[in-house]
Amino acid sequence: MRHFTILATLFATVTYVAAHGYVTAVTADGQSQSGWLPFSDPYLSPVPTRVIRKIPNDGPVLSISSTDIACNQGGNVGTNDTFDVNAGSDMTFKWTNWLEDHKGPVTTFMASCNGDCSSFTASNGKWFKIDQGGYTNGQWASDKLIANGNQWTSNIPAGLASGQYLVRYEIVALHSVGEPQYYPGCVQVNVKNGGADQPSASELTSFPGMYNGFAWPDIYTDNLNGFVVAGPKVVSFADNSTSNPTPPSSSSSVSPNSSGHSSTASRPYSTSTPANPSNTSTCRTKRSASKKRSFSAHRFHRRSSNH
Ligand SMILES: [Cu+2]
User: Fold this and answer.
1) 95: which strand partners?
2) Distance from the CA of 40 to the center of ligand 1, in angstroms?
3) pLDDT averaged over 10-residue windows placed end to end, the chain, 307 residues
4) In 3D, which of 192, 128, 186 has the Cα closest to residue 162?
5) Do the Cβ atoms of 125 and 207 come closer than 8 Å?
6) What is the CATH number of domain 21-303?
7) Cα(33) to centroid(ligand 1), Å
8) Where are the domains of the chain?
9) Residue 174 C-alpha to ligand 1 middle, in angstroms?
10) Rounded to the nearest whole angstrom, what is the distance from the C-alpha of residue 206 to the centroid of ligand 1?
């Protein structure tokens, strides 16, 4: 009996640490939609159509130059469903149990599908940021997500022009220094009752592209208080308000950060000052030399997978 208990415990541990994560459901306006569930949906008959684009498993994207960085592996092509959401509404992403050691920033971007999202190639998207969480008051955004029941909520800007968009959610896990793990995914949404706002050129970025040259910190040794989330500022629509005024409305202007995730949110991205220019060459040494770290799940996880 004792042997059985030990084995069962071991097995449970392996199962737990081997799981990385993905979004299982998305909610807005009181409506919830299932995400693409990679370990069960492929085996259903008929195979369900989801509002979230297909992913192959719960693992990360490791290459920032691959088109997979846009909407995960296989997510460059569309699904045949869209989620109706009102401009100005909150959208909540429900993740699988996120690993505590998979610390890092959380961001949400959108890109117009220029029509029908089901035929839109994600890597052609011109993405604008609607929400971000970095490192605030000693806490990574991923920790906030866990504390909030493995959920993250972002606001769809109230003035955003109606139409179909991809909403790209992402956690970047920084536990393996020098090898950031990207966990993106994309919901196809149909924004209704929007305004006239469009992002300006300086608010747009691309995937792949945005992470080129970005220097991730060593989360164990660097001073993280200066960490600036990668990419453009969260859209404010302020700089096109003169040429393209937002009509006055009772709900008035909804701040892109009204969900309150981040006080570091509005810091401008600086390409010229990497957070830690030297960490990539020394990360392996640092990792193996580290004696102070006691992230047993993290170490076991690394051994038991390619990540
Ligand atoms: Cu992982």
Assistant:
1) 23
2) 20
3) 44 53 98 98 98 98 98 98 98 98 98 98 98 97 98 97 98 97 98 96 97 98 96 81 41 37 34 36 30 36 41
4) 192
5) yes
6) 2.70.50.70
7) 25
8) 21-303
9) 10
10) 25
